[in-house]
Structure formats: structure tokens, C-alpha cells
Amino acid sequence: MGYVTAVPHPRSEPAFVRSGRRSLALALLSGALGAAVALLATRQRWSEGTASVAGGAFPLTAKGSDVTGVPAALAVVGLAALVAVFAVRRSGRVLVAVLLALSGAGTVAAALFGAYDSSALDDKAAEASGDTSATVDALSHTGWPYVAAVGGALILLAGLLALRYGRLWPGMSGRYERDGTPRQRRAKPVDPDRPEDMWKALDRGEDPTGPDPI
């Protein structure tokens, strides 16, 4: 005769719970990392060249923020949207997830357009030479615009994960239980000899003449 044990067998988590946890961790990692990468890349040198001045060739450089401010701005918006995903529910979460995805897509597009932009260096060449029609010579670009585009792609990935699995993620608010119903407030004791306490209880929707809470 075999032995009977009273120890219950551990139950495995449902597949949708595991998917929700994995997608949440991946979205947080990719969104935060993507915003950091995009912001870092916009502070680096994107292009360089020379301007012809009286003393010869004058070297010029342009950072990503000189070329375009769109990637940095959208990275900040994406980071804020990533946090806001957990502060809203249902349709609000879907809207914020769409904003997160659009921020990533916009960052990618702006970074790729900026990779071939020369207007920032042309403006610097005109300022250095004193000739408004002057343009930059020997123009070259670095790889930092593409790094910013990678950051935008990570933000886009976070947005797509939020759209697909956001309904499985928990929210920030502690006022509600997991099933979404409000928690019951425990009634405060009311002193019948203090009229102000009775009025406050009525304002809260409580019955001051009822039994004392346990």
C-alpha cells in the first residue's frame, strides 16, 4: 500500500499570467533603455565638416540636438507614457500604449532623417564665414543618428507590447482589488456626544446610529 501525503502539489501558473509577467519585464526594459539610448545619442556628434573663411578651412561639428530636437522630445514623451501605462486602465491604457508606440516610431523617423541633414552645419558655416549663402564643405556623418533610431525602435517595441499584453499588467492604484472592485472602507467610530462627528459620518455616507464596527 502506497503512502498518502497531505502536502498539496504546487500549481503551475496559467500561461496568460506568465505571458503578462514576461511582457511587462520586457516592455519596461526596452522602453527605459530605448529612451536612455535616444537621449544619449542626441548629445553626441552627428555630423562634421569645414567652412571656408579668410584664414582657411574652419572645422565645424553638429550634435544631434543641433540637427533636430524631435528624437529627444519624443524619447521623453515615450518615457512618460511608459509610466502612465500603469496609472490607467482599459481604454485609457490602450490610448497611452498607442502614444508610446507612436513616440518610438517618430523617434526612429526623425533620427533617420537627421542622419543626412546638413542644414545645421550650413547655418554654422554661414555664421563662421559671415556669408549667408555659405555652405559646409567636406560633410560627413557619424553613426550616432542610427543609435538614436535603435533607441526609438526599443520604445516602439515597448508600445507594441503594451498594446498586445497591457490588459494583463497590474495598475498603480492600490484602491482597487485585483478584480477591479473598490475596497470596503471601515467605518470610523462615532461619539454620539459629539455632533460634529455625527455630521462627518453623514457626509461620508455612514449611519452614525448603526452598530459600532467590529
TrEMBL record:
Entry keywords, A to Z: Membrane, Transmembrane, Transmembrane helix
Biased composition (Basic and acidic residues): 176-207
Transmembrane segments: 24-42, 69-88, 95-116, 143-163
Species of origin: Streptomyces ossamyceticus
Domain of life (superkingdom): Bacteria
UniProt-annotated stretches for the region Disordered: 176-214
Transmembrane helix listed as a keyword: yes
Name of the protein in question: TIGR02234 family membrane protein
First and last residue of the signal peptide: none
